[in-house]
Design goal:
The chain is mainly α. The protein has helices at about 5-15, 20-35, 55-65, 75, 80-95, 105-120, 120-125, 145-155, 165-170, 175-185. It has two domains: about 5-95, Cytochrome Bc1 Complex, Chain D, domain 2 (Orthogonal Bundle); about 105-185, Cytochrome c-like domain (Cytochrome Bc1 Complex, Chain D, domain 2), CATH 1.10.760.10. Helix content is about 55%, strand content about 0%.
Length: about 190
């Protein structure tokens, strides 16, 4: 079985039989970019495995309604119904957690980043292991360059959230702190 066929089969199993064929086929492009096994292999594209479905549905809604701009996501989400948003979110969130692509962080990086996590209280929203909860995203094991770009965009307010918490939290981050946080969290 080819990887894309496996992705469609996974979508069919996850989404049930009544609407699985059309939605399963529509989910295949998502899996091609975001990773059919939950881990993105595409630079700049986040891994969605084990992501909080409530977070995914919110992001898809924002893409669909152009509250968040991120080509090609706006076009991909444009024709999704509210039911599609929920089905896609549930299926993507059921994928396995992303696998860290790099070795564990060295002790110096880990110490710097853990101090930043404590200082900025990252685990108060993203949970103790940075695995997310409710509509707060899983960031543990996320792609490093994606994390760095997201933090920089929150800091500059180029990426507005549906809640200003991340924009506020990122305001005091320096470039080297963003690099340390991204490198550490991606390696967890």
């Amino acid at each position: 079985m080819r990887p894309l066929e496996g992705a469609v089969l996974l979508a069919t199993l996850l989404l049930g039989t009544a609407s699985a064929a059309p939605l399963g086929e529509r989910l295949a492009p998502c899996l091609a970019c975001h990773g059919e096994r939950g881990t993105s292999q595409t630079e700049g594209v986040p891994s969605l495995g084990a992501q909080m479905p409530d977070y995914i549905v919110t992001q898809l809604f924002q893409f669909r309604d152009k509250q968040r701009t991120a080509p090609p996501m706006n076009d991909m989400a444009a024709d999704l119904s509210d039911d599609d948003l929920r089905s896609f979110s549930d299926a993507l969130g059921a994928l396995p957690a992303p696998v860290a692509a790099k070795a564990a962080p060295d002790a110096a990086l880990a110490a710097r980043a853990q101090a930043l996590v404590a200082k900025h209280q990252c685990n108060s929203c993203h949970a103790g292991e940075l695995t997310g909860r409710d509509n707060i995203p899983r960031i543990r094991g996320q792609r490093e360059e994606y994390l760095a770009a997201a933090l920089a965009a929150y800091r500059s307010n180029a990426r507005p959230g549906y809640d200003p918490a991340m924009n506020e939290a990122a305001q005091g981050l320096k470039d080297d702190e963003i690099r340390d946080l991204a490198a550490y969290i991606a390696r967890l």
